[in-house]
Structures are given as structure tokens and as C-alpha cells.
């Protein structure tokens, strides 16, 4: 018999609400013979305030045993900026070597975009997840004085760049348009930029069917709003990926529908799936959050675990639900979850 | 008698064409009693290929004597990425301590934006120009091997952050809405981010009339396309400023109309004014480039030198010209320049 052993981290703010709907849809879509086990972990602001802990070695050991992780959102204004981000979210991504941060952007029919006209948007960003300016390298001297100096070190390795570039080429190769864009800023960040560009060009030789282009990150933001149809697969560094995937989410229906996977393709550690949005404390507990991004993250999770048909069923359900929203009264978080659960079961 | 002694650097690609129009409009707008002297410098790809030089100490000495610098664009595909950017453009910005990189974004009536609806866009980005990841600190070991490591070091000082933050507060204070947003990524880049945030909050105490907010750079890209009216003045670091000003240009009429000033407010060195766009080699020499961004950069230049009325006249002329473009046949670069020269003179 098949089984999925899932770690569930609702986290802070709307995380609780959207994860509940994600699980509802997951239960509804799974075939009878698949045994779903879930274990909830209480990470985030509450745990931090109660114990001062964000993510301990014992926590990592416990999480390691699961097949995958579903995360809602982490972050609360009561916790100083960076404590939970660095102490939990990034710590987990780094500890479990989530080097492929996968973020699809697809503008579904009937969904509102801030862009004029009827842009065609269907691309996926492969964001590096374990290097770049996210390593936490750097420091501060003479803190709080007029002579303070603070540094941030972006660390980039051939090993780290090549594996994510290779993953992106394979994804581009598997898509009908077979296009891959490298986004960086190699005219200014010449050390890291040349490493990325050299590795990209070397791996490109192994994928002759993939059409490639290089684009500076600043120019990429222009194309994302003027010619988003230009993109098929994008590969980029951790920080540039953070920035352009929020912009990509905004133009392709908003962060209410943007899903992501923090993937360790080797399977050595469980991969983690989470909506791109944050904990949105301003609307927490009011049933106002759109669970679609979390539900779509569940689809990515299922695809990662080999449940392709179920993943597609979820994606089609969300697309259908979004397509029928225009002109309808607002629904609560759980009403949307209910509707999606019915659709995927049906 | 008053005089302006201007260094002119047409540079590469469309730089030549747009600078010619900038000078045309400058001559037309200046009162009779102002003596305009210009000296052209041949920096860029041609000089690099001929001599291997990008910007020598002697060049810097010569440029230093001018009141201001007007630059077209630097960069050509025949030169390896980074050589002219680091060797000329950034070298000049750093040598002349251009720490206030000023980039206004205003969507003028009648101008096309990729955004739906009728967004109100009128803000200015104050981008730090001499620190951050642009310092060129960092390096590469084991280059070209599978063990290559490349680093980029973002350097941030209390001195450098405070002066640009102070400049931004003063600009916000002088504007009707008196709003200032700090954009950074202080939840991940905690060393630099906390320095920026601390300095920002400290200086804020001196400007009680200015309303402030903090925003992560990823979230800022969302607001730039969904609520651009939210912004009045933005202050941010060198790299984030690079990225968001291209996006800002895209949503507020395109890089054909985005002007910038690389300003040294102390006057110790001449400030440099340039369009945000690049050298666009694909359309160079064809009279297709829009000189408006360069002409608006001339307006910033004049304002910097104290010619407020003339600066405003240019801005009004460009606004009027853009407002009448819809439905009209395309004009050449010099036809647009001619029309603007007539307007400012009239
Ligand atoms: C919360 C933050 C640390 C995180 C990131 O920067 O990666 C978030 O913005 C994201 O994109 O998942
Ligand atoms: C050409 C490049 C070095 C430059 C920068 O990154 O600052 C450009 O993009 C700009 O914004 O002026």
C-alpha cells in the first residue's frame, strides 16, 4: 500500500488557515489506497516567544523522517525582523539542501492581472536556494556608531550553480517551448556573474535543443511587465529569484495563487512546499486569505512525490475555481477550500 | 555673466543620437546671457578597442574641471560584459562620489503604461550610488574548475547610508505628500539591513513631518505594479535601486522617458546626468531612439546647477510632446529633439 508521511507546519498568521485548506484538498484528491499520515509542528512566533527556539537540531531530526513538508507561513511583527526568517525558514532550506526553489507563474483564464491587455503568462522560475547573498556570511563592526560597517557576502560555487542550472535545463528541455533564460547582473557582479554565465554556457552545450538567453535582472523586471510571454523557464540566483518571483506572482494573478517548492532533487532530505505569500498578520484569523497558493503548493508536493495525476487534478480544480470567480461574491478561506475539495474529488 | 561648462560623453550605440538632441534642447532653453561651453569625450567601446583604456586618471582629472557631465550610454556587445560598466561607468560614479542616484518616475498624461487602469505614478527613487554590492569587492578562486568559488561583498557604512538617507528625507520633506519608503531586505540581509533600518529610523526622528514606511524589496516589486500611487520618495541601496528603477521606468512610460542624475550634493566633483536606458545597439544609428530620457536628464542637470525655471520648461515640453504622441506617426530621434527645442524656446 502506498503512503505519504507529511510534516505540516502551519506557522504564523494566515498560515494556519491556508494549510487547513491545503490538507482538506489533499485528503480529497488522494486515492483510497494511499495512506496519508500528517504530523503537525508548532514552529514560528508562538514557539519562539514561549521557548526562544526557532529550529533545533532535534527538530531537524524529526522533520528529516517525513516524505515531505507543507508549510503555511512564518513571520510575525512581534518577532524582530530576520529572527524567524534566518532562524527557521532559511535554516531549514539550507539544512535540507533545498537547492531548487521552484516557482511557476501561470496566468489562468479569468484571473485578474495588473497588466493591461491579455498577456500570456506561463513560465517557471528555478531559483537557487542554498547560496548567493542568502548564506548569512558577512558581519558588522562598530555597530551603532557613526563608523559602523556592515557587509553581506554572496557565496557562489561551481557545484551549487551547476546543479541548479542543470535542473533548469532539464525542465526547459521537457517543456514544449524549450526556452531557458539566465537572469543575473554579470556586468556589475562580475565574480559571481561570470561563474553563473560560464557554467550556464557549459551546460547549454549538453542541451542543444534548448534555446537560451541571458538577461540582466534590471532588464528582466521590464520584460516581466512588458513581454511576460517571452519567458518559459528562468534560472537565477537566490536573491534575484526572490525579487523576480514576487513580481512574477503579482503579474500572474497575485500572491494569492503563487505556489513554490523548496526541492532537494536527490531525496536525501524531504522537500518543502509553501505558498510564496507571507503570514499577512493584518488579515489573519478572519477567513479572508485565499488558500489557492497553498493548494497549488500541495499540487507541487504531489508531483514531487510521483502523484502526477492528482497534482494535475488539483491544478485544474484551482484553474476552474479561479475562472468562475469574476462577479461572484467573496468567499471565505474555508469556502474556497471546500469548493476545491469537491472539485478534485468529483 | 553666467556660464555652464559641460563635459559631454555620447558613448556607444544610441548614446550619440540622444545626446545630440539633449544638447539641442539645452541650447534652446538657456537664456541668452548664459554661456554654454561643451567638451566632448570619446569614452566607450571605440576608445576601449583602440587603446585598451576605459577611464584613466588623466581622464578623471579632465572631467573634474567641468560643472557637470551629460552621458548618453556606455556598452557594446563587442566588449566583454562588465569591462565598460565597471571600468568606466561605475569607476566614474565612485571616483566622483556620486552617492545620490536620483531617478524620478512620473507617468505623464497620454503616455502608455503596461499597467491596466489609470495608475497615478509620481515618485522619485533615491538610490545609493557608491556602496552595496557595487563596490567590486569579492573575488574568485579555482576559476574555471568544478571547485570554483566566487564571492561578491556588499559593503555598507553608517557614513554612506546616513548621507543618502538624509538626502532622501530632505527630498520627501520638500514634496507635498512628504512620504518616504525604505526598501531593503532586512529579514535576510540582516547585517546591511539592520544598518539601513537603524540609520533610517534615527534620521526619521529629525523629520517628524515625513511619514515613513519600510518595505522588503520583493514586496516592493508587487506594489510597483499593483499600487504605484503608494510611493512618493523611495530610498534604497545600490543594487535594489538598480532593479526597482528599471521596473519603475517600465510602468511609468518606459525607459524611453526615464532620466537619472548621479549626484554629488557637496559639489566637490561634477555630477553626471544620463538616461536610465542603455546603448541599445540593435537600433543604433537608425534615428529610432527616443531622446526624451536624455532631454529629461538635461532638465535634472539644469535643476542641479540652479536653473530651476529652465528645468521645468523642459519637463513641461516633454510632457506636452508625449501627450500629443498617441495616434501620430512615429518621428525620428532628431524630429523629436527639434520639436522639443521649439517648445522650450517658445
Ligand atoms: C521570508 C523570506 C526569508 C523569503 C525569502 O526571501 O526567500 C520569502 O520572501 C520567500 O520568497 O520565500
Ligand atoms: C550599466 C549598469 C552598470 C548600470 C547599473 O547597474 O547601475 C545601469 O543598469 C544603471 O542602472 O545605470
> How many angstroms separate the termini of chain A?
23 Å
Low-confidence stretches of chain A: none
Give the ligands present. Answer: 3-isopropylmalic acid
Top CATH class of the largest domain in chain A: Alpha Beta
Q: Biggest interface between protein chains, with counts per chain?
A: A-B, 67 and 67 residues
Count of alpha/pi helices of chain A:
11
Q: Return the CATH architecture of the largest domain in chain A.
A: 3-Layer(aba) Sandwich
Please identify the structural class of chain A as seen in this structure: alpha/beta
Largest sheet of chain A: 10 strands, mixed
CATH topology of the largest domain in chain A: Isopropylmalate Dehydrogenase
Q: Mean pLDDT of chain A, as a whole number? A: 97
* SSE arrangement of chain A, N to C: EHEHHEHEEEEHEHEHEHEEHHH
Strand content of chain A: 15-25%
State the domain count of chain A: 2
Radius of gyration of chain A: 20 Å
* CATH fourth-tier homologous superfamily of the largest domain in chain A: Isopropylmalate Dehydrogenase
Helix content range of the residues of chain A, please?
40-55%
- Total DSSP E strands of chain A: 12
| Order of the strands making up the biggest sheet of chain A | 2-1-3-12-11-4-5-10-8-9
Write a structural description.
- The structure is a homodimer of 346-residue chains.
- Chain A is α/β, with parallel strands linked by helices.
- Chain A has two domains: 1-99 and 265-346, Isopropylmalate Dehydrogenase, CATH 3.40.718; 113-252, Isopropylmalate Dehydrogenase.
- Chain A contains eleven helices and twelve strands.
- Chain A has helices at residues 15-29, 45-51, 57-64, 83-95, 158-173, 190-204, 217-226, 238-251, 292-304, 308-323, 333-345; strands at 2-11, 34-40, 68-73, 100-106, 122-128, 138-141, 149-157, 179-184, 211-216, 233-236, 259-263, 271-275.
- In chain A, strands 2-1-3-12-11-4-5-10-8-9 form a ten-stranded mixed beta sheet, sandwiched between helices. In chain A, strands 6-7 form a two-stranded antiparallel sheet.
- Chain A is globular, with a radius of gyration of 20 Å.
- The first copy, chain A, starts with a strand and ends with a helix.
- At the A-B interface, helix 4, strand 6, strand 7, helix 5 and helix 6 of A face helix 4, strand 6, strand 7, helix 5 and helix 6 of B.
- Strand 7 of chain A pairs antiparallel with strand 7 of chain B, so a sheet runs across the interface.
- The structure holds 3-isopropylmalic acid (2 copies).
- One 3-isopropylmalic acid (IPM) sits between chains A (85, 89-90, 242, 276) and B (187-188, 218).
- One 3-isopropylmalic acid sits between chains B (85, 89-90, 242, 276) and A (187-188, 218).
